[in-house]
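Team,

Forwarding the record for the chain on the shared tracking sheet. I've put the sequence and predicted structure together so nobody has to dig through attachments.
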Amino acid sequence: MSEEVQERRTGINGWLDGVRSTRTGALTLKIVIGVIGAVMVVGGLIMVPFPGPGWLVVFAGLAVLATEFHWAHRVLEFGKRTLHAWTEWYKRQGWTVRIVVLVVTVAAAAVIVYVGMKSIGIDLIDVAQRFIQ
């Protein structure tokens, strides 16, 4: 008679396995992970046009969602492949294309920041003119 040895995971994975062992725990975990991941993805997408870690937060949110949702894992893998392909394409380009991409990126960020500040009542051009005088 052979004895089955069941390996117990420890740490966070063991705790998550324990939570997932009941139907209520599994549903609660899916809801909590879904809310946290969705907030991270939406927050990251809002931050994308601004200087900072927008895409990093989007990918982190997808990684959180991927712990419970297979579709999020597929989206995360697609995003990683696309980012890698973009990076490889960008590295192969000459300085002219790199400078054009940089100028377009900075111009888009400037327009987004200007429109955003204008929408809350701050005119950056007026502020800059007063600063110069």
